[in-house]
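Protocol step 4 of 6: structure prediction from sequence.
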Amino acid sequence: MHELSLTRHVVSMVVERAGARRVTAVRLRIGRLSGVSAEAVRFAFDVCARGTVAEGARLLVVEPEGRGECPACGRSFPMESVIETCSFCRMTPLRVVGGEDMMIESIEMEAG
């Protein structure tokens, strides 16, 4: 399960940024085409944060939809999978233009 190692890395970056301040919330963006299970990250976050300044922090996950663009007709549209045909002209392969990323959007910490 690569989500566990990804979550460990996220917690490590959050803890490094927070220093000695207690983290109260972390907001992650996990695109729906990223190949990362947001539910697995939610589950792993509490385990990975245990014993750190991020223990007990709320994890807020934003899951932007996938977006594709057809190189044949130039149209852009939502995608559920990276293996799709154009909704308009039925061409394939498509260019993925959104929803593949995973990033920390913000970290909330106690004042200190």
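Step 5 (inspection) to follow. Strands lie at 23-30, 58-62, 66-69, 76-79, 95-98, 102-109.
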